[in-house]
Amino acid sequence: MDNNDERNHSGEEAAINAAFQELLDIYLASQHRKKVELITKAFNFARQAHKGVRRHSGEPYIMHPLAVAKIVCKEIGLGSTSICSALLHDVVEDTDYTVEDIRNLFGDKIAEIVDGLTKISGGVFGTQASEQAENFKKLLLTMSEDIRVILIKIADRLHNMRTLKHMQINKQYKIAGETLYIYAPIAYRLGLSKIKTELENLSFKYEHPEEYARIEKKIEKTQLERDILYTEFTQPICEQLDAMGLDYRIIGRVKTPYSIWNKMQKKNVAFEDIFDILAVRIIFTPRSDKDENNECFNIYIALTKLYNAHPDRLRDWVNKPRTNGYKALHATFMSQRGEWIEVQIRSEKMNEVAEKGIAAHWKYKSLGESSNDDQLDNWLHTIKEILDDPQPNALDFLDTIKLNLYATEIFVFTPKGDIKTMPQNCTALDLAYSIHTFLGNHCIGAKVNHRLVPMSHQLQSGDQVEILTSNAPRVEESWLSFVTTAKARSKIQAALRRQQRLLQHEGEEKLNAFLEQEGLGNHAGNIEKLWKFHKLKDRDELMLAIGKGTVALGSDDKDALLGNKKFSFQSLFTFNRDKKKETQEAERHNEVDRKATINLTDENLNSRYIIADCCNPIPGDDVLGYYDEEKHIIIHKRSCPNANALKSSHGDRILAAKWETHKQLYFVVPIQIKGIDGMGVLHEITTIIYQQLNANIQKLHLESNDGIFEGTFWVNVHDVEDVKEICSNLKKIKNIKTIARIG
Question: Which of 15, 215, 601, 706 gets the highest tally of CB atoms within 10 A of its CB?
């Protein structure tokens, strides 16, 4: 080893030791029992196990488990068992050591957590659909057995996201998409709001780097204005709270670029139209624990003497906490400058629970204080119920679980006055299934506030609901179109699968009778001929179609089986030509380098790549490629919900893509427009589009009501720049108030 190598080695060793000491300092400052010896033993073992191994960034691998352990301790608030498990979380996966080695050295509990983490290593999903569903089930099972497994996994994902810049672009899309689709919602569900926010923001940063930078720059540019607003708004509040003799602190909270962008997308508005970028948080120490809730309302009342409160924006999460344990009082007040500002009122304990989630619940429970664990237990019980009905399609399975991770809660009452917490936008049928599967399967309608409503009726907070049932179960596929909860969807799908199996059995009996009657053989070859003749997917689909009666067996089926079908030389030539073309196409796609960025040009867009119908990307949009089972490459927007699901379930098929077009091709884009109706507005709009911008309107739809007009134009454009130019020019028309591209 030369002098430079020695210096580098000693420098790295010093950095590793400093990182470990920082971890110990954080741990020793916490309220956990001081098991320094055990943590040191785990660190030394992991350090030796990963010796000589480096991350993509080039740093020693041990720095990763150290960083994860630090997040586990400082940002989630877990103790020695979790810290040791975090330090050891990659040992079994990446080295020759086994779970039994961990058990012998560190005991059963740490070994079980490391084993759970090993089972879900390398992301939630593997490469095959069955593996994907299975790995996700493992994650959920270990989560319901010991919640620390998923908490450490979230810490692992957070550090990976913080260091994502060292990965290949297509890997960045996969990991960022999976994070946004699965890990951020689970972090939210477990009460880790700070981590959830950072995961979302980092995902956005890597999926839409230009948009992220643009919004960040605008936030920075408007910072001084917000600082003045914050000072003006909070000064009278401080004087009022001081007069009340409260021990408190006030902090300003600025929305993240992701949060702003998400709102811009949902509401089709520009950055300048987002008015709640600033929020204020009042965190106080109550005089006594029993006064905690009352003091939140005392502060609120004091604020109403200073500012007018928005009548519809008071959120009482104090008396009825969210299902993830979050407690706070949210209110919105009109500032001196005529802007609405949200104020969040929390005690120090509420603030810790909001940031550290379930770990903080454990802490206060161990101190003998009440804890809101029932909601978490109910959710974990729902997960176990869903796992009892495994779903064959990995994406369906994932969507079913994910449904209620982000849901905002409402409160409804049973006929006896019992309160039920349900997700916002839930239906009467969702409530039926939440009470009992039997009730859901037999539901025919409901009475809401003593008024008869269909089972698809959306419930509101405060509704009193009575579920109406029939004697026989009557589950229908159409129910899936309006239920919103994971449990309801899961139970409906399970019932439909049972019905499907019965119909397939009936279909099989009908087919057997037909083949016997016609004197034909009941073997796999004949059955394959039949499902292909009817253009069905496989044997099961054929049996189901016969059972349902959508396929009626007759003379045509007999001819197909006996080969009495005319087949010309021309059709044979066409068939062979098409097969040859398919083979060439497949061979060409087999050459795709999944690590390389694909260039989307005017020449290859129509011939080689497919533009996804679900999001209709155009040149200038942030896009990616998805390499499907038929070896087609489909181009999606990176923000497309379907693309997010694909990043999570088929991450190995995601390709980096960029536009290399030169304004040769046209794409149809819908542009939504709203404004004040008046003489000549439509003429002004069409004049600008046709004459000034030389663009062609494919279709338009306009409606006017009470002096307000609203409409959509479908315009031919080359790229995003064309869309921006159209919107910019149309905004100059006096009567137009909002304009935005849809989708």
Answer: 215
Domain residues for the domain of 703 are 667-741
| 246 and 314 assigned to the same domain | yes
H helix and E strand count, the chain: 31, 19
Please identify every residue annotated as catalytic: 93-94
Which of residues 629, 660, 691 is at a domain's end?
Answer: 660
Q: Decide if 210 is inside a domain.
A: no
Instruction: Tell me the HSE value of 533 on the side-chain side, using a 13 A CA sphere.
Output: 21
Q: Which of 621, 640, 660 is the last residue of a domain?
A: 660
Number of domains in the chain: 6
The residue with tokens 């380098």 is 593
- Tokens describing residue 373: 């664990």
Q: What is the DSSP string of 327-340?
A: --EEEEEE-TTS-E
Q: Which 8-state DSSP code applies to residue 425?
A: T
Residue 346 makes CB contacts below 8 A (sequence gap 6+) with 281, 282, 283, 284, 296, 327, 328, 329, 354
Q: DSSP state, 59?
A: S
Residues 283 and 310 in one domain: yes
| Claim to verify: residue 349 and residue 394 sit in the same structural domain | no
Both 236 and 100 in one domain: the answer is: no
Check whether residue 705 and residue 717 sit in a common domain: yes
Q: Six-digit token pair at 173?
A: 């899309």
351 and 251, same structural domain?
Answer: yes
Q: Same domain, yes or no, for 221 and 365?
A: yes
SS3 257: helix
Block mean pLDDT (10 aa), the chain, length 743: 62 89 90 86 93 87 94 90 93 89 92 84 48 57 71 92 90 87 84 91 93 94 92 95 94 92 84 86 91 93 94 87 84 90 93 78 53 56 61 58 65 84 89 92 92 92 90 89 88 88 87 80 77 79 83 75 52 46 48 79 83 89 88 89 80 88 88 84 82 79 83 89 88 84 80
Alpha carbon distance 609, 612 (integer Å): 9
- Do 345 and 364 lie in one domain? The reply is yes
Confidence (pTM): 0.74
406: domain CATH number is 3.10.20.30
Q: Which phi and psi (to 5°) does residue 738 adopt? A: -135, 145
Which residue is it, tokens 């939140």? Answer: 296
Q: Kindly state the tokens that stand for 183.
A: 């890990």
Helices (H), 591-715: 604-607, 641-649, 681-687
DSSP E strands, 272-408: 278-285, 315-316, 329-334, 340-347
Pick left, alpha or beta for residue 497 (phi over 0 → left; psi -120 to 50 → alpha; otherwise beta): alpha
